[in-house]
Amino acid sequence: MDRFLVEGGKQLNGTVKISGSKNACLPILVASLLTDEPFILHRVPNLRDVRTTLKILTALGKKTQYENGTVTITADGELKNSLPYELVKQMRASFWVAGPLLARFKSAEIPLPGGCALGARPVDIHLKGFEKLGATCATERGNVILSAQELKPAKITLRFPSVGATQNLMMCASLIEGETVLENIAKEPEIEDVAEVLRKMGAELFTDEKGRLVIRGRNKLNGVEHAVVADRIETGSYILAAAATRGDVRVEDCVPEHNSILLEYMQEAGVPMEIGENYVHVKPYQAPLKPVRIKTAPYPGFATDLQAPWMALMILAQGASEVDEVIFENRFMHAPELVRMGADIVTEKSVARINGVKELSGAHVMASDLRGGFALLMAGLCAKGITEIERVYHIDRGYEDPEGKLNALGAKVTRYNPDKDDF
Ligand code: EPZ
Asked: 302 and 220 share a domain?
């Protein structure tokens, strides 16, 4: 398995262009199951999770092509309505196929996504929503079996604004004639991107005066051509990496307003930035970084996906700060790895208490999830000496060409495979 060797003491300088959003393109690619017409998606990042999603669509009977950031999906005979466990276990988001398959076939059999490093990752909110739409949900031998005589529009209130459940139900309801109303939905920008695609396919989606999402579905949806929104988590990750190395970096092709709360907290910490229409320019600074306490929350609150990169900034602040992770039950796996590099972090339940240190030292560490892996990359750039990061495949799930983008900014990150390369 690939590893990264990261040379420390590097300051990032230059321009980095943001790719299309992983968390928008995955559900949008799955929406291609709602139609047999050609489905063209631009600005698709070359990520492990994208390639897995294309494998899933092929396994379900679609023909997929992926060239220079554009994915073209066409019908290739009958669609199947069940998925092999092999594919689902690689990526929890494969459960998003349930909504479209249920809507098209009135039945679907999908392996229950297992837990992951972040925690149990249940899908009860998805299933409760399908039941409201008229489906029966049973779980047998690790598979979710959905079936419905007839699906009908419904009013559904989510007990928690789950991103995946919102997307799954939006896609399902778009193929059900009549008016479905979703209340207490996730408001992440990726949701709006999925809604935009469903509108282009012929469904009607709008937010009513109570902030609920109204979906007027149709019994047939058209093909679509769409370009994916910029990845706000990649944007935040590079802004934080630039600030951690006190470099001079212009992060381009992004949507700064999707990172408003992060930018606010970074200004509070004392990081000078120029914020434009579609760029954020992080400026160099000498003053000590001020510690700032954050708590994760559904959008527009502080993104749980930026919690680990934020921690990698705060470990170098002057003073004590806290990170309160209330979205996932186990999202501090990067903390002990950062401690191995000299950080001073104590975690207790959902809170990590950080005392900033003057210096980090390179060490041999291991990534356990994609965002924690990026945090280790950030710490490696700032540390004294070399940091070796194992299980880089986690980082490859959500960051397009990470070493290419970082090295173009002056970093020295080398990818190698100890089983193949002799260093
Ligand atoms: C999406 O995951 C993202 N993944 C995650 O990004 C992101 O961290 C998460 O949203 C929160 O923003 C994709 O979009 C592919 P949730 P999702 O359903 O949809 C609980 C990354 O780093 N929950 O909003 O799975 C759940 O256990 C990844 O790019 C239920 O209890 O997130 C979690 O504690 C990691 N029952 C919380 O809600 C359910 O039915 C948030 O989950 C569904 C969720």
From this structure: no
Distance from Cα 162 to the centre of ligand 1, integer Å: 6
Domain limit, last residue, from 206, 227, 248: 227
- Each residue's pLDDT tens digit, 346-404: 999 999 999 999 999 999 999 999 999 999 999 999 999 999 999 999 999 999 999 99
Q: What is the mean pLDDT of residues 326-353?
A: 97
Instruction: With beta carbons less than 8 A apart as the criterion, state whether 190 and 24 touch.
Output: yes
User: pLDDT value at position 82?
Assistant: 85
- Check residue 40 and give its pLDDT: 98
Q: Which atom of ligand 1 is nearest to the CA of 92?
A: 25
β-strand pairing of 273-275 with 279-282? antiparallel
CATH at 140: 3.65.10.10
Answer whether residue 423 is part of any domain: no
Question: Does 309 have pLDDT greater than 70?
Answer: yes
Same domain, residue pair 168 and 261: no
- Asked which of 183, 211, 227 is the last residue of a domain, the reply is 227
Same domain, 155 and 260: no
Pocket test for ligand 1, best of 19, 23, 47, 228 (most atoms within 8 A of CB): 23
Sequence-distant (6+) residues with CB within 8 A of 344 are 315, 354, 355, 356, 357
Classify residue 397 by its DSSP letter. H
Given a cut of 80, is residue 20 above it in pLDDT?
yes
Q: For residues 50 and 43, what is the distance between their CA atoms, to the nearest angstrom?
A: 12
Is 172 a known active-site residue?
no
Which residues have CB under 6 Å of ligand 1? 22-23, 26, 92-93, 119, 121-126, 160, 162-165, 186, 233, 304-305, 327-328, 370-371, 398
Distance from the CA of 414 to the center of ligand 1, in angstroms? Answer: 31
Q: What is the pLDDT of residues 246-285, one digit of tens each?
A: 999 999 999 999 999 999 999 999 999 999 999 999 999 9
- Spatial contact of 279 and 251, defined as CB atoms under 8 Å apart: yes
**Range of the structural domain that residue 170 is part of:** 22-227
